[in-house]
Amino acid sequence: MKSADDQILDEAARWHIASGDDAMDWDAFTQWLEADPRHAAAYDEVALTDGLLQEHRADLDAVAESSAELPAGAEDSSGEGADIIRPAFGKRLRWAGFAIAATLAAVLAIPQFMVPAAQVYETTGAAREIALEDGSTIMLAPRSSLTVEGRHQDQMALSGGALFDIRHDPDRQLTISAGGLQISDIGTRFDVQAQDKRVRVSVVEGKVEVRSDSLAAPVRLAAGKGLSYDAAAGTAAVAPVRAEDVGAWRSGRLSYDDAPLALVAADLRRYAGVEVAVPDALRGRRFSGTLVISDGDAALRDLAQVMGLRLSGSAGAWRLEQPAR
Amino acid sequence: MESEEYGDANGLAGLLDMHRADLLRFLTARCGSPDEAEDIVQEMWIKVSGQAGGPITNGPIANGRAYLFRMANNLVLDRARGRRRSMQRERNWLEAEGGGVAHMPEDRTDPGEPADEIISREQEAQVLRDAIAALPEGAQRALRLYRFEEMGQKEIAEVMGISRSGVEKHLALAMKRLREALVGCGAFDAAASMGYGERSGGKPRMEQGQ
């Protein structure tokens, strides 16, 4: 029977070996350390051993080399763990049983040292629903991309738009980075639109926290609030949002309250697939109202009309202009 | 000032801020002391904000995060290493002072360095040399490639014609055996480790097999 200490040392050694890899699951390692104070002590000894090995490298190199030039075939061909049972060494047979048990225990006790690879979702013309393992769902807008990483699928990066419907789980905190903002969620329903360095976060239910280097302090957004952040201009504003407007893009509507025209144009590109150039002088002009986006050209004409602008050019290369008076 | 901060928006300082809570939690578990954890995060902050525009400003977040955790882990290890060395020196000094038996007096020849330091370092090398020689070939070869040829685990798997997890097992076994050998000769008696050696000291070490 294998002692608990030995088991701990096995795990410690495997964590130490995994720590050299980019895919090391540091959160799971943290949990392993927290589980038992002996874990950290065992890990220290293993890591110190490796440290000493590297310190004495010059002295040890020659020795290791001379004894390592053995035919490797016999053991390697039979794969993992084969070196453990080798009758040629009398000593080794004696503890072969322990070693096998060690291998099995290590496999059972810590099946995962590595974080699963990142998943990247990209949409073109149509939105797509993404289901997370915990039952949360994300509706990813057209022409957007979302990367999901982390053992608990809790590290995300968004470019474009998405409506998040996240289940509350006290053990994990979801963080979404988008256009220079970090949005942390505490189980809620909220929408994020990120285009370049311009981000809007609108909360329907629950609460989210938004952080950025350029914000003096984290901003907490409650239900019914929205944040408009513009990294280029260095501005962030919190304003009320109407629940029925949040994520309304899914039902073919875009609603705005005092939104800059450049942002409306970017949304039309994303949601209605219509390209429109906005001259610099008009980019900051404000728009309030609702656009129906099932027909992109029609939505653009509506926008031009409401704003008192002229739509020039032709399909595929529209341009909004200030009409000559 | 503002522009510099902004330039680091996707850099390490920003990431450090973002993952501060996770790093603190990790470091607290790792060193067993929230104060030391704070200390180390502070040290990391100085390091990452010192390098303007950080080295991995456009790397994916996940890698940046792993980079910070690795950095934190290494800082803890540096401290443990320093502590072990200074305690070792102190212990050797006390033994010599109190007329106790210091290690291998016949080795105490070179006047250039503190003698106790030399002795323990030579002992360490000898213990490691023996332990490496006693490793099963698979583990020995994997270890040699990993630490002396500085190959990555993936590369070793290719060279040895075995799976990644096979390499991992070989290396873990090697580390474990070397640690046993060092513990056996008291190398960690003065270490920072929290009494792990003592606790397991009473039990027979079944795998020592030499």
Automatic annotation (TrEMBL), chain A:
Residues 121-209 form the FecR protein domain. Residues 10-47 form the FecR N-terminal domain. It comes from the Bacteria. The keyword Nucleotide-binding does not apply. InterPro entries: FecR (IPR006860), FecR_N (IPR032623), Ferrdict_sens_TM (IPR012373). Pfam families: DUF4880, FecR. The chain crosses the membrane at residues 95-114. Keywords: Membrane, Transmembrane, Transmembrane helix. The keyword RNA-binding does not apply. This is FecR domain-containing protein. It comes from Novosphingobium beihaiensis. The lineage of its organism: Bacteria, Pseudomonadati, Pseudomonadota, Alphaproteobacteria, Sphingomonadales.
TrEMBL record, chain B:
InterPro entries: RNA_pol_sigma-70-like, RNA_pol_sigma-70_dom, RNA_pol_sigma70_r2, RNA_pol_sigma70_r4_t2, RNA_pol_sigma_r2, RNA_pol_sigma_r3/r4-like, WH-like_DNA-bd_sf. Residues 127-178 form the RNA polymerase sigma factor 70 region 4 type domain. The keyword NADP does not apply. Keywords: DNA-binding, Sigma factor, Transcription, Transcription regulation. Residues 16-85 form the RNA polymerase sigma-70 region domain. It comes from the Bacteria. CDD domains: Sigma70_r4. PANTHER family: RNA POLYMERASE ECF-TYPE SIGMA FACTO, RNA POLYMERASE SIGMA FACTOR HI_1459-RELATED. Belongs to the sigma-70 factor family. ECF subfamily. This is RNA polymerase sigma factor.
